[in-house]
Amino acid sequence: MEENNITSQGEVNQNPESLLRVSPKMKESLLSSMNWIQFFVILCCFAVVIFTIIAIVMLAMSSFFPVENPDMSPLIMLCMGLLYLVVGVVYVYPIIKGFKLIDHTRKALRAGTNSDFEASADDLHSIMKYCGWLTIISFVLYIIFMIAIVLFAAMSPSFLS
Q1: Torsion region of 101: left, alpha or beta (phi above 0 gives left; psi -120 to 50 gives alpha)
Q2: Is 28 part of a structural domain of the chain?
Q3: With 70 as the cut, is the pLDDT of residue 150 above it?
Q4: Is 18 within 8 Å of 65 (Cβ atoms)?
């Protein structure tokens, strides 16, 4: 099997035998994967709705806490409500890209167009890049919060006695 040859100008000379061909098995697997991705994206839509409802309830409850329980600070519920709202917003971008990935991949496999296949590859790249950055940011925040908790506990008077 011959590989692509790159000319001195950076152009690729492709032998027809070395071009990517989508076999019926590959097509079947990709279409099946799109069904599972669609299921996952729909679950994420439900998660965004649930997070938004929880956020609204917590934000509403934060205004009632001084009346119900004067010992409890409404700031806790306010912060938790905002946190749930932020988590819901963070899910929106991968959901949109997920639906685009499904659409472009199905179009590419049905029509056999390179432009849709390239768009689906871009969508997949965007989702994975977003998830990678989100993972890095999450780890950094976890480390910062753990250090803050340890420092807060070490500075409390009950910790030393």
Answers
A1: alpha
A2: yes
A3: yes
A4: no
